[in-house]
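Review form for a predicted model. The reviewer records the input and the model, then writes brief findings.
Reviewer: anonymous (R2)
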Amino acid sequence: MAELQVVGGGKKLNNQNYNTWSTCIPSYIQGQDLWEIMNGTEIKQPKAEDNNRILCKWKIKAGKAMIVLKTTIEEGVLEHIRDASNPKEAWDILSALFSKNNETKLQLLKNKLLSVSQK
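Model under review:
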């Protein structure tokens, strides 16, 4: 897992570095053969196990992709993807949070400001 520390320019995703982080993570995920599960090509969990162990392989890939996301974001951001059911959902949540000026991002920044003010 030590190699994950260099993903995204060596910094975990926070309120200021989404563009850098979101540029680096796909390359890392592709290098680990996990991009299909992150970009939506393989987001659906297979219904049942078969002779080729498709369900088991899917769960392993999904787990690997989720651990990459969870270990490369700051704790305050982790809260937003805690209940994501698959890597694609987590990726979409992070994208919605940081790539646009929207109500969710405004709330995140407001929470950060309040936490700084309280310290």
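Findings: The helical segments are 18-31, 35-39, 54-71, 75-81, 87-98, 103-118.
Further findings: The mean pLDDT is 82.
Recommendation: see findings above.
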